[in-house]
Amino acid sequence: xxxxxxxxxNPEPAEDSGSPSNSVSPxxxxxxxxxxxxxxxxxxxxxxxxxxxxxxxxxxxxMPYARHIAVRYGGRGEVxxxxxxxxxxxxxxxxxxxxPDHGTGFLGYATPMILGEIKRYFRDATWDVHxxxxxxxxxxxxxxxxxxxxxxxxxxxxxxxxAERLKADPEEITEALDATxxxxxxxxxxxxxxxxxxxxxxxxxxxxxxxxxxxxNREVLKPLLARLGERDKRILLMRFFRGMxxxxxxxxxxxxxxxxxxxxxxxxxxxxxxxx
Length: 276
Prior knowledge:
Layout: H1 26-43, H2 49-74, H3 80-97, H4 106-125, H5 133-153, H6 159-166, H7 170-179, H8 210-226, H9 230-241, H10 246-253, H11 257-275
């Protein structure tokens, strides 16, 4: 794995696509350069020193992007650097397994892999008290269901409503609620394992480039949106890009406002499920 804080030539993520762009945008140039490096690396034998040099260059160039994803999760109270190292591991795996001939951009391939590594670590290693895997998974699903039902109902959901949404027994929901108490958040004054012994989580707040969030969300959403039907895509376009009301969408589709509301809820549930 590359050194913990290896410098990168450029602080922004080297987003990639399957073919070079004719745009003069620096991002497009970097995407094309990354793909060129992958193609060049693929031609070299595994034991060629030049192949290893190219591999390390690609990893180093994308480390700021992986770190940004990790910090989003580290802000929940865990030691930030632990999440960063896990994100780097996902980045290394993505680099070693990426095939440029499949037509997928590198970030579109690497982002889910980095997120998967972080989520596995968060699930398995961040509980202060050991909780059975089933309860950990149910607790995670419970947080999402509570947020969604609160939005839909305009109030906090009952245990029975949560159990119905998650297709679980009310007793399991109660146990999962108790299990969440086993995960303890940390103070912002908690020291982190960085070079400076006096560094705390507070020192790392507010420094993120807001463009990173857009890149992460876009890359995760791309394959999810691609799986939607044409009508579902049209509904999302009218609602969130054209700012149309549900009644206006209903008039366009020839359905009632209530049907549009149900369709939107289903579409958004599918997208949220894809985020894991």
